[in-house]
Design a protein that fits this description.
The chain has 572 residues and is of the alpha/beta class. 46% of the residues lie in helices and 13% in strands.
């Protein structure tokens, strides 16, 4: 059921009986809503909002399609032996003395940011967490079911209006916002993902334009008053590979501001540098977004995934076990250092990477050891010059805040004080250096176990999953998938085990069988039976053994969660 052509390919979706659908969305011409009708959702999917989204789709869809074709062409070059590198045609941009627009006062201090899906309780807890910023996620931490996406929009609207609350009946507790909350950023989906519950002019909408368009339309006025101090809304932009894709986002922002009648440069965005090609275009990406930029972020888990994907046809560039691919690797450290130098030279934030650890409540000793590793990682980041960093769990925030505050003093950021001119000498070779380390059967097992369990959760509507004391999202599952695929393709030797064993389809089949048995022991037979573990196992195994590597796990799996509802009765 894969959609080989992304949002402009054929789709084969599940249809279900109407089940008493009692209403119908009021849609403009050319727009068809195929998701379930709900009165709450109808307050988001208003005619005006859909006119706005459709205008963005119609203006930019061909630009996006062309950008996706350019990605394919680049992949063909890499698969033919080419390497990504700095573009000689844009050397003048890299060498120029330009700077981005001044950082808005509301987001000058971003020393700790927390991320999570757009779920109601999560939003309240994250905004109340003590972090400086909360990134509400429609992307890697969310399974994009119709219910999740629309409830997420409802939740964000309530959050911006300050009225959001959540009653936890099991705990007999009501959650509400504190007086002091984190600043809200929203991450829409990447350019490659469709929204197949909404059709515009006969084809699925572009997912990120739906996420951005609905949120911006309903919230820009209130946000600028309550959160942005005259600026906003604020966004994180994922999965870009080059400045062409950044230019599309900049044009979307310009268009949105014009349609809303607000000043150019009101919208601000941080771009995640989480693909290997993008690291060679950081100046160019900032240049395209210079009126709307508030920096770049080291999306390091996706970056590792992108390294494998970019070099899928390069058997000399195989990664070691994923647990060994950390910031100590030269290519990862070079990426971080160059990002800091680039951002500070252009007057914007250089954000550090994710701490995915979650508290280990039943083992205080192990919990303390994990917290020390987090502190060490964050100390490395702030000493390198990062202006802030990410945490996956509120329990990490006090320790991380202390590390950054004690090393930053009273400054809200390090933009002016840590220029990192030493990183100007970093070369393409530094950014591409082959990682060192061994490959083991345990690495193969962990990839398989994590991948299957993540896909099982994703298929049942959960995109952020605690596994083995880490918060896993699509990025870590992607590393598991592409690494298994590459090891299988080249029959690599598991050199860390000293037994000369090579990864073969037979070995992988045995590992899948044994890891499924382990999953059943760990989560319980009943849960495996009720959940979608068998379906996830088939899907994950198929992706690991496919002759051609799928671009994205989530794109391949997307049709499994799309449900089309028949239209309700027409309004009289």
């Amino acid at each position: 059921m894969a959609m080989s052509m992304g949002y402009y390919g054929d789709t084969a979706m599940k249809k279900i009986p109407s089940g008493g659908v009692g209403g119908r969305y009021d849609v403009p011409e050319g727009v068809d809503i195929r998701g379930r009708y709900d009165e709450e959702f109808a307050k988001i999917l208003t005619k005006d909002a859909l006119v706005f989204v459709a205008a963005l789709q119609r203006e930019f869809r061909n630009h996006v399609k062309y950008a996706m074709e350019c990605r394919k062409e680049a992949n063909m070059r890499y698969n033919s032996g080419g390497l990504p590198g700095f573009d000689p045609a844009t050397k003048n941009v890299r060498d120029g003395d330009w700077v981005c627009a001044e950082v808005p006062p509301a987001v000058a201090d971003r020393r700790v940011e927390i991320t999570g899906p757009v779920e109601r309780k999560m939003i309240i807890n994250a905004l109340n967490s003590g972090a400086k910023v909360f990134m509400a996620d429609f992307e890697d931490a969310l399974s994009p079911t119709w219910e999740n996406l629309m409830k997420g929009q409802v939740n964000l609207k309530d959050a911006v209006n300050g009225t959001i609350s959540f009653q936890d009946k099991a705990r007999n507790r009501v959650y509400k916002l504190n007086d002091q909350t984190a600043k809200l950023f929203v991450r829409p989906r990447g350019w490659h993902l469709p929204e197949s519950h909404i059709f515009i002019d006969g084809e699925p909408a572009i997912g990120c334009l739906v996420d951005f368009g609905l949120y911006f339309h309903h919230n820009h006025t209130a946000f600028r008053k309550t959160q942005g101090q005259g600026y906003g809304p604020f966004f994180y932009l994922p999965k870009m590979e080059n400045s062409r894709e950044a230019r599309i986002w900049n044009n979307v922002f310009d268009r949105a501001e014009k349609l809303a009648g607000i000043e150019t440069g009101s919208i601000r965005a941080t771009v995640l540098i989480e693909t290997l090609p993008a690291v060679f275009q950081m100046d160019e990406i900032l240049y395209e977004l210079r009126d709307h930029s508030v920096g770049l972020n080291c999306g390091r888990w996706d970056y590792i995934f992108s390294y494998v994907k970019t070099f899928q046809a390069h058997p000399d560039r195989l990664l070691p076990d994923r647990v060994l691919v950390g910031m100590g690797q030269h290519f990862m450290r070079s990426y971080s250092d160059l990002l800091i130098r680039t951002c500070h030279r252009r007057g914007v934030h250089a954000m550090g990477g994710m701490a995915a650890q979650i508290p280990i409540r039943d083992d205080p000793e192990a919990n303390e050891a994990a917290l020390e590793l987090v502190k060490k990682d964050k100390l490395r980041e702030v000493r390198a010059g990062h202006d802030g960093t990410w945490a996956a769990h509120p329990g990490l925030i006090p320790a991380i805040m202390e590390v950054f505050t004690s090393n930053m003093g009273n400054s809200p950021n390090l933009i002016e004080t840590m220029k990192r001119e030493d990183a100007a000498s970093l070369t393409e070779e530094d950014l591409l250096q082959i990682p060192r380390g061994v490959r083991t059967i345990e690495g193969l097992r962990l990839n398989t176990r994590v991948g299957i369990q993540y896909v099982a959760a994703w298929l049942t509507g959960t995109g952020s999953v605690p596994l083995y004391n880490l918060m896993e999202d699509a990025a870590t599952a992607e590393i598991s998938r592409v690494q298994n695929w590459q090891w299988l393709k080249y029959g690599v030797e598991l050199d860390g085990d000293g037994l000369g064993v090579r990864v073969t389809p037979e070995l992988f089949g045995k590992v899948v069988e044994e890891e499924m048995a382990r999953i059943e022991r760990e989560v319980g037979r009943e849960r495996v039976k009720r959940g979608m573990y068998k379906e996830a196992c088939k899907l994950f195994t198929r992706q690991c053994t496919a002759p051609v590597l799928d671009d994205f796990l989530t794109l391949n799996a997307y049709n499994h969660i799309v449900v089309h509802h028949p239209k309700g009765p027409s309004k009289l």
